[in-house]
Amino acid sequence: MSFLDTLRQWDEAITYVDRQDLPEALRIFLSIQEPNSKISFDIGCLHLLNQDLEAAEKAFDCSIRKDEHLAVAFFQRGITFYKTKRYEESLADFQKAFKTLRGNQLIDYKALGLRYKLFACEVLHNMALSEAQLGNWEKAQENLVKALDYKTEAKLNIIDRALQCTLKQKLFKPVEFPSKELFRPNKHYVAELEKKDYLGKAKVVASVVPQDAFSGFAPLQPQVKDGPTSPKEPEVLRALEGEPHTVLFEFVPETSDELAVVPGNIVFVLQKAADNWASVIFNERRGLVPYNYLERLEISRASKQNEGQSVPPTREPPTRPERKQGLNRRDDSIELTQQDAQSTEDLCIVKVRFTFNFAVSLPPGSPYAMLIEKISRKLNLPSASITLSLTSEATGQSVINAEMESVWSCVSARHITLWCVTKEQTDGKQQDDICFVALHSYESQNPEDLNFNQGDTITLLSKVNQDWLEGQCNGNTGIFPAAFVEEVPVASN
Q1: How does DSSP assign 185-219, residue by residue?
Q2: Which CATH number fits domain 327-426: 3.30.420.150, 3.40.50.20, 3.10.20.90, 3.60.20.10?
Q3: Beta bridge partners of 286
Q4: Is the pTM of the predicted complex or chain greater than 0.85?
Q5: Which of 8, 184, 474, 481 is a plausible cystine mate for 317, CB 3.0–4.6 Å?
Q6: pLDDT tens-digit profile of 393-440?
């Protein structure tokens, strides 16, 4: 079957769907000999409406086999498995759908012909429900807490209600795809199905230029006055102003606005839209490519030729690391921005005092396992090595254990402050400390920075990125540029 015949039948089937004649639409879809991934997805959705779960599963299998990056197909097959009470397979498909989102908050399929947005928080919601059906209530809570990081205002209530249900170990309803929303063929391609006369009727063209002896198809044209005074800037130079990205997956365009790329291509992203589509330039051509098909390419211009020379760095430090959204570091406090404060009205903010300060949020009445898991993930340390207390000194009465009643009783205005120490700190020593000596003095007006003088010794706490470190000096903690210090060799015994 030719592409035009497939396109014509696809458009005809969608027309019957709009008329609510679903049996006839399904009959036309099934008559297509070689359906693509989108058509197979449409067939699966219609089978799902008819409660023919076995046929729906086979259709979604075909859709995924032809496009393994179609997250919404994994989501729909997960719904199909859930309806047949195959919860482990349902969980696996929801996990694959979340992985395909590649850390994005949502994927908008409008540009591909489907009026639907797949939200990461809804995928995590269904993952939690599958875990709950398997009796894994703690993992269900973890998925819902993770969903809070991907939530939008419109989806906040459904995540909160599900989280409250898991605390009571009660099941909740899954988030389902509106099955009457189907992939539609490209309207520009459909418009080209009818025959057109591109040549038209021949006509005589007379020259308007005096003494024009030209006898071709068109006369000579007068020169344009006031033409451009400077040549047009090459497109490739403007592309260098964008951010370089590597193409991970092959993308075949379906509209004239889209750009064909294959794995390994280097493209320059000029703009990323909210619907997960990016405007890029490749080989001096501009077009749209799904952003989750790309991976940012880090191009380092640093040179190691002058390594070992003690040339003072410039007074301007390298580009500062981005602060985590919602947290503003201060010497003795952490404040939530107004945006995060509004979105966490129903959550309790737990401020944690450590060698540096940070905050986590969780629903009131949450178990100890959820609290310690979030803190250990922030510190990148095992939960067994962390001790929490209600006071600055971890005494027997103030240490927090599995019983959380004493913690929640101290909450005031949905805020509470806890102190955190590690096993190494409680033993009174920290093994294998990495120290630096300051090659040059560093002074900054930023409150999160660590100021020091030339010759001071700095203890490393963590590596922020390639250019910035976090350390402790003279009782103060903060971040500083790595170019200002040199590591002190460890003395061998």
Answers
A1: --HHHHHTSS---SS---------STT----SSSP
A2: 3.10.20.90
A3: 281
A4: no
A5: 481
A6: 777 777 887 777 778 888 887 888 888 888 766 655 444 578 899 998
